[in-house]
Amino acid sequence: MYGEAVQKLPAYVHEARLTICGLSTFLDGYVRLHEAEPVLNSEEGTPQGVLARELLRRASAGIGGEFFLDWPEGGIWLEKNLQFSRWGLGGSGAQAGQMLAVLGAPALMSLEDRSKRQLSVIHPSVQVATNQGVLQCGDILPVEKRKPAHYIFEYTAGSPIGSVIPKRSSRTIVRFTQERLDNDPDFTRESISAAAISGAAILSGFNEIDRQDIRAALSDTVKLAHAWRDRGLRTIHLELGDYASLDARDTVLEGLAGAFTSLGMSYSELRGLCVGSQDPITKACELSRKLNLSRLCVHADTWALAITKRDPQRELEALVCGCLLASIRAEKGEPCQALAVPGNAEFRDPPLEPFSKSRERFIVCCASPYLERPAATIGLGDTFLAGTLLVLGGAESAIANPQ
User: Fold this and answer.
1) Short-list 269, 386, 367, CA closest to 329
2) How far apart are CA 108 and CA 335, in angstroms?
3) CA-to-CA distance for 100 and 394, rounded, in angstroms?
């Protein structure tokens, strides 16, 4: 099945319509956690000590996610004291757009920070809106002003970090400022104009917004999403993300209800929605009905699943394409062309058969190529998202699933 997906990928790219990728873009600095001695050896009671304790707790538990530390000087301290392995692009919509551009598919990205450092990590063919229309990122002139970076601490299963030996490979995203959505009015204008010919749009970044700003952000997003839908855009996908509190997460889901048609999350994020011993897949079906979604998608380490009203066979192709691209990024450590299934990938039994039903919706499930010791884990969910929307937003999909 995955071998067939490799062969089909050029056709998916050829059929691809524009994907609108928003609404929050960042610069990420990468550090291997076991190499972050200045943090790990920090004294208790200092901001560095607080950061070290939280990073080790997450590595020991095998969890990633995001961590906000109210330490305005934190970024300056880290960049002065740590050796960064590389710099990269951050934000779910942005990373999905980056993957699409690497494949040769069109993507329009929201982008407030147009500094030289930020532009240097974006694929030159990614489309960016300007007051003169849409240009490729490689043709954008940089400006001086820039946003604070995020810092990614990565760890690998079995590789010691002091006395901690992680059982699962993951990463923790650390930030020191409260964020907001990109202030990019040109993107708003051009994305509405392009919605009529686009295959899908991505909403993300709400998990990083301060409580006092979230209501306005949600209101603005609802207006934008409705403008897209009025232009005929059918698939508007919300990538859930990791929230600091259940209340913050629920505020976003309630505030955007009706504005998005597709919802995506990791398996750990799905479990966070469950109450007590509630079965996660049952909860996913319940949530899909409650929010009246066309599809709900879950990505786990060894499988992926979608609950959909649409063509289940097409959805299976989308899941497989997403898992394929994510596994290759895990192997290589960065977005790249899909030439073959990773040779060291394992396949484990998924929790369900490929096709089943829950009332009026189909449940589609597949095993994913699993790498126990990936080169990197950041962006795998966003790469998976890019692959699914590449298939679902293609021109053939529009013909197979007319409105």
Assistant:
1) 386
2) 17
3) 12
Residues 327, 345 contacting (CB under 8 angstroms): yes
In which band, very low, low, confident or very high, does the pLDDT at 402 lie, cut at 50, 70 and 90? very low
Distance between terminal CA atoms of the chain? Answer: 29
Query: 2-26+178-400 adopts what CATH topology?
Result: UDP-N-acetylmuramoyl-L-alanine:D-glutamate ligase (3.40.1190)
CA-CA-CA-CA dihedral for 332, 338, 340, 341, to nearest 10: 70
pLDDT band for 403, please (50, 70, 90 cuts).
very low
Cα distance between residue 26 and residue 204, in whole Å: 12
Q: Which helix (H) or strand (E) holds 78?
A: helix 74-81
| CB within 8 Å of 170: residues ≥ 6 apart | 58, 59, 62, 63, 64, 154, 155, 377
Confidence band for 236, pLDDT divided at 50, 70 and 90: very high
Q: Tokens for 9? A: 């990928």
Contact 93, 204 (CB under 8 A): yes
Q: How many CA atoms lie within 13 A of 72 on its CB side?
A: 0
pLDDT tens for each residue of 15-71: 999 999 999 999 999 999 999 999 999 999 999 999 999 999 999 998 888 899 999
CB 252 within 8 A of CB 219: no
Give the CA distances from residue 234 to residues 86, 101, 135, 203, 401, in Å, rounded to whole numbers and listed in that order.
37, 21, 25, 14, 10
- Burial class from Cβ neighbours inside 10 Å (0-12, 13-18, 19+) for residue 133 reads exposed
Amino acid identity at 177: T
Q: Which of 326, 166, 175, 329 is nearest to 242 (CA)?
A: 175
Cβ pair 302, 348 in contact under 8 A: yes
Q: In which residue are the tokens 């305005």 written?
A: 72
**269: number of Cβ within 10 Å:** 20
Structure confidence by residue, pLDDT tens digits, 101-123: 999 999 999 999 999 999 999 99
Euclidean distance between CA atoms 24 and 380, whole angstroms:
17
Q: How far is it, in rounded angstroms, from Cα 250 to Cα 218?
A: 12
Q: Which strands form 26-32's sheet, in the order they lie side by side?
A: 66-68, 170-175, 150-155, 26-32, 86-90
